[in-house]
Write a structure and sequence with these properties.
- The protein is of the alpha+beta class.
- About 35% of the residues lie in helices and about 30% in strands.
- Strand 3 and strand 4 form a beta hairpin.
- The protein is elongated, with a radius of gyration of 20 Å.
- The termini are far apart.
Length: about 120
């Protein structure tokens, strides 16, 4: 084989491997326990907005302090908007933190209101 072709082939193989690795799955880590949650896996970079919204909703409903509340979640290109109403500012922040920790969520616009505020 011609020696000038070998670097081109090697570069091609590196590109193929890098493309394959970019589709690896990312698991959501529970912030309290530090344990990956096996039931909430979204392929990073490939997750569509509906999957991200569903993953955020599921994560919020698993949190004991937040499961009693109804949230409306909109996602556009990984940018998540949270809407709803909670009892305390701490619950509002917790919802934002959980959303940011969810795979596929890049930014959070927190429009959750606090009752009596």
């Amino acid at each position: 084989m011609n020696t000038s072709v070998k670097p081109v082939i090697a570069l091609g193989l590196i590109c193929v491997l890098a493309a394959g690795l970019s589709g690896c799955e990312k698991k959501v880590i529970n912030e309290k326990t530090g344990v990956p949650e096996n039931n909430m896996v979204v392929k990073e970079g490939l997750a569509d907005d509906a999957n991200v919204s569903s993953a955020v909703m599921a994560a919020l409903q698993r949190e004991e302090q937040l499961k009693a509340f109804n949230f409306h979640i909109e996602t556009r290109k990984g940018d998540v908007t949270l809407m709803g109403e909670v009892d305390t500012p701490e619950q509002r922040m917790l919802a934002e933190q959980i959303t940011l920790a969810t795979a596929g969520a890049h930014t959070v616009q927190n429009k959750i209101s606090v009752k009596n505020n």
